[in-house]
Amino acid sequence: MQNKDIKRLSLILLFAPFTLWIALLILLPHIGMVLLSFREKVAPRVYEYSFANYLEFVNEPIYWNTLLRTGTMSLLVTALALLIGFPIAYYIAKIAGPRSRGGLFLLCLIPLWVSDLIRAFGWILLLRETGVISSFLLWTGLISTPIEFLYNDVAVIIGLVYTVILFMIVPLVSTLDGMDNSMIEAGYNLGGNGFTVLRRIIIPYAMPGIVAGCIVTFMLTAGSYLTPILLGGKNSSWFTEQIYNQFITRFNWEGGAAFGMLLLIFTSFVIWLGLKLSGQTLANTVAKS
Amino acid sequence: MLAKNKTTPFLFGYRLYVLAFFLFLAAPLISAGAFAFNDSLFPALPWQGFTLDWFFGDTEPKLGMFHDRRLLQGLYYSFVIAIFVSILSVFVGTTNAFLFIRGEFPGKNFFYILMVIPLVIPGVILGISILVLASDTANYVEKNLDLELEFLRPGILLVVLGQFSFIATITSLVITARLKKFDATMEEAAFNLGATRARVLRTITLPFLRPAMIAAGIVAFLVSFENFNTTLFLVGSEAPLTITMYDRMAKVGSTPVLNAVSFFLMVGSGLLALLSIAVQRDKQA
Lengths: 289, 285
Known about the structure:
The complex is a heterodimer of chains A (289) and B (285). With 289 residues, chain A is mainly α. Chain A has twelve helices and two strands, in the order αββααααααααααα. Chain B is mainly alpha-helical and 285 residues long. In chain B, α8 packs antiparallel against α11. The longest helix of chain B has 34 residues, at 69-102. The interface between A and B is large, with 85 and 89 residues.
């Protein structure tokens, strides 16, 4: 009897920090944001509940164009990160010798420990008109006047892929690592060529890792702020920038909250769709890595 | 293996690709770090010679980072914030690990997903939602009780809470993974030898978890140190380093002192990351 009480008490004690954290810092703030987003200022200090903030989003093409642009660019970045990252992850997990494997994996992680800001700063120094690449091309004589590589979509995409690709590679390496090599050999023995083995055996096996990587990559890209602004310049039109403008520049918290909700709904929808299409769940992908 | 049955040129090309990828990874870091040592007023080519002025110089225009009061202040605030965030996150991460590995309660899967969710919410949204709740609460209290709750206004506490809100998920996952590997017979043996619950926890279970807790603490420290998106909305007058650097970049433009700070941070976090790996590897082997 006493033992049971102790068990119950310790369960309650363990639940306390979890509940405080999730309720006070995640659930309540989001409920507050939903309520705020439905509030409209009708006169100074007088508010009414309405859809005005959402209607403003629908009626102003700049806003939903920005959201769509953020969404498509994020999908593109996710796809590129997968295409570029998969061969690297495969090399680390399956081809590199046991000794170099750990080293390569560590090398992959190094940029992770440097802030977004410094990574973007590094790209600025490389890509700008007076930057390293432009100077180098001038020096070799391939170009005669300096070229500005910065402040365009390509720069934004390069910077974003660079920032998020590690979050793609890490879950991929850990799933591929758990794959038995004999499965691949069996595929070859049964007469499959490299492409068939890749398509029929390796990719299906790696699916949880692929989905986990894609989810994290997509969320990080769509929610990023620094990289698009620093590398894309004034016209980067990233949706987080709109949220910042509403909140800080225009001090329109109601509008900003509505935009925040829209970003959250939009990204959650894309992820839900991705999970449905790939037949995976959040618990066996992101939670595992 | 995929590449074994291929001809050597394929493998050679593959290796070249991997090499190119690592060059891509290194390039911006090298350019951010290397210009800290260039004896020039601008972080750009051509190379003007080696200098340490951007670290130790004490006069304008080459004011080094160790004499730049605002940068040092930012470094200090970042440090304080990161310490608090890691202590909080490791504590909650540990209780969460016990909750989900040892606890039996209905709806466990649901709560587990709830625990993972903060990691997939964009940082900007975590920032604004916490800002909104804190400000609403402060306004409400001020209006109805005539009390000014200064700590709910943007400042260090909100930054700590904002970062903690998603870093706690990371530490929970790391510590949970370790607790999962724990062999329950070790605890049983101790109980059979007459040890109390508290003693078993202190002498057996927690020492087993310690490497994961230290590693999770270091990860939390680093993620906190480099966080920008969540911090941006919650920051008050005590700006941490990333915010100070961003301001400098936006207002003054890039100067080599930012390269010096970058180099300093890269070396610092590199060492911490190696430490966290060493701690984990030692005990797991």
